[in-house]
Design a protein that fits this description.
With 58 residues, the protein is mainly α. It has two helices and no strands.
Amino acid sequence: MKEAIDEIKTEFKAKLLFWNNIQSKKIKVALIFLFIALVGLKVFTTVLTFDWLASLFS
């Protein structure tokens, strides 16, 4: 369990270091919008899938 927590901490530190090394604010904004778009797409497709499944069984 301790190894898993250490691995998560290491990964988080690596991601934070990557984020801090990005100098351009435009790239940071683009990455944030990309992340939001991917989450929105996932939610949207999940809702449509469940809606389709519900109508299939009705």
